[in-house]
Amino acid sequence: MKRWLIWLAALLLPLAALAHKPSDSYLTLRGAPDSTDIAVRWDIALRDLDYVLELDRDGNGALTWGEVRQRAGDITRYATTHLQLTAGNHACTWETTGPLMLDKHSDGTYAVLSLTAHCESLANGLKAHYSLLFDVDPSHRGLVQWISPGSPTSQALVFSTDSAMQSLALAPHGAWETLRQYVTEGMWHIWIGYDHILFLVSLLLPAVLIRRENHWEPAPSLRRSLVEVLKVVTAFTLAHSITLSLAALQVISLPSRLVESTIAASVVFAALNNLKGTIEKRRWVMAFIFGLVHGFGFASVLADLGLPQDALVLALVGFNLGVEVGQMAIVIAFVPLAFWLRTTQFYRKGVLTVGSVLVALIAGWWFIQRAFDLQSPF
User: Fold this and answer.
1) In terms of domains, do 318 and 363 share one?
2) How far apart (Å, rounded) are the C-alpha atoms in residues 243 and 328?
3) Domain shared by 213 and 273, yes or no
4) What does DSSP assign to residue 349?
5) Across residues 185-214, what is the average pLDDT?
6) Domain assignment of residue 190, given as a range
7) Whether 340 and 230 share a structural domain
8) β 24-31/141-147 pair status
9) In whole angstroms, what is the distance from residue 214 CA to residue 277 CA?
10) Which of 64, 163, 198, 341 has the least C-beta neighbours within 10 A?
11) Cα separation, 101 vs 96, whole angstroms
12) CB atoms within 10 A of CB 98
């Protein structure tokens, strides 16, 4: 038993460092009719730039605008050496077209570069090779919105270590490709959204058990457990779909820090509830109420990705569908294993009790970081 508990702790504790989403940068590449120039806006997280360029010269752990501004040239050179646009067989050249600026994203402050890529001709196609931060963070991604010359349609691209070189289509993509891209993004986000996963798993842990005389016992049948799972998942899905749609359509907007802090608090609440079973028969209500807040968290990611205005509803549906597919994959993997282990002390004491305590501690640390902005460079 002790060995299993040590393994469980080793699995969960590294998540304490993951209070914010993984490293991404955001690019908008825009072509213009009757021109071979490509206008580029590139948002790169200051925490990432500080890591590779050591912007915090005085080492006090807090970046200032002066420290960032003094290294504007270094930041631009670092960025442009890690993004190559090639038209035909000729590399495009870079020109800085605006001063370095700052912008807030859902996970912190970003440096904003304004650039123009001068290309000889686009007649033979356009390719992009992206390699920013790949040498120090293989999980980093470049999220690109590409607007081809003369087209109102944007193409969403994701650059990673496995897809560092991609073609930029000069003709607009169809509806199916747009849907596919955003379904993929939705699936990816739920799989790397550790706070969303821990909240859902915390609600599902007791689904294979029943509460009797202040202690947990194995559920008598798989059918009963599946009904409980269905209620929780349906409530969570319905709730976050509502607020994701409202926020993405800009009907409702909430401060990012409030949303992210409340999401962390929801994980704490769900995990601690497993210790006492206070809301044992109404976990679906908890899933719905907190699911509304999680929807705003999903929406902030979707906003960072960028929604194509010409295919707004399609992209929104695709992202939401991707979240649901990713969520169901987690449920399908979890429920059979949990039901199989439900009769063991390892599950009831180790996974449910000790695991819930560890999850509550991790999420509590996330709450402190988010509520007090402890990791923000500004």
Assistant:
1) yes
2) 19
3) yes
4) I
5) 89
6) 181-371
7) yes
8) parallel
9) 8
10) 163
11) 12
12) 11
- DSSP 3-state of 31: strand
- Across the strands, what pairs with 118? 37, 93
* DSSP single-letter state for residue 30: E
Per the listing, tokens 């988010």 go with 370
Phi-psi group of 306: left, alpha or beta (phi > 0 → left; psi -120 to 50 → alpha; rest → beta): left
Q: Any idea what the Cα angle at residue 79 is, between residues 76 and 84, rounded to 5°?
A: 120
| Residue 59 DSSP SS3 | coil
Question: Cα(128)–Cα(28) distance, rounded to whole angstroms?
Answer: 13
Report which residue type is found at 347. Answer: Y
> What is the identity of the amino acid at 343?
T
Q: What is the pLDDT of residue 323?
A: 92
Q: What is the pLDDT of residue 376?
A: 44
**CA dist list (Å): 76 to 36, 46, 94, 117, 306:** 22, 13, 10, 13, 23
- Average pLDDT of the residues in 73-87: 97
130-164 b/e (C-beta count within 10 Å ≥ 16 → b): bbbbbeeeeebbbbbbbbbbebebbbbbbbeeeee
Helix, strand, or coil here: 26? strand
Q: Can you tell me which residue has the tokens 């000889």? A: 120
Domain count, the chain: 2
Asked whether the beta carbons of 8 and 351 are under 8 A apart, the reply is yes
Residue-wise over 65-80: b if at least 16 C-beta within 10 A, else e?
A: eebbeebeeebbebbb
Shared domain check, 242 and 106: no
CA–CA separation, 337 and 101 (whole Å)? 50
Encoded tokens for 36: 């071979």
pLDDT score of 378: 37
The answer to the question of residue 223 being in a domain is: yes
Of 129, 147, 173, at which residue does a domain stop?
A: 173
- Judged by DSSP in three states, 92 sits in coil
Q: Collapse the DSSP code of 24 into the 3-class scheme (helix H, G, I; strand E, B; otherwise coil) and give the result.
A: strand
Q: Are 140 and 23 in contact (CB under 8 A)?
A: yes
CB 171 within 8 A of CB 189: no
The position carrying tokens 């390699």 is 131
